[in-house]
Amino acid sequence: MEDSELIQKILILEKNIKKFKLNNNLLYYNTDPEKIHFKQIEFHKSQKRNRWVFGGNRSGKTECGAAETVYRARGIHPYRENKDNISCWVVSLSTQVQRDVAQAKILHYLNPEWIEDVVMSSGRASSPKGGVIDYILVKNVFGGTSKIGFKSCEMDRDKFAGTSLDFVWFDEEPPKDIYDECKMRVLDRCGDIFGTMTPLLGLTFIYSKIYLNEDGDEDAWHIHMEWADNPYLDKTEVEKITSAMSGEELETRRYGNFSHSKGLVYSEFNERIHVIEPFDVPKEWFDNISIDPGLNNPTSVHWYAADFDGKVYVIAEHYEARKTVKEHALVIKSFSEGLEWHTDGKGRYSALIDSAAGQRTLSNVKSVKELFYDEGIVTNSSVNKDLFYGINKVKSYLCRGGNLPPALYIFNTCKNLIREIKQYFWASDDVPKKKDDHALDELRYYLCSRVDKDMGENVKSDIQLHKERLIRKMRRTKF
Question: Is 60 exceeded by the pLDDT of residue 465?
Answer without folding.
Answer: no
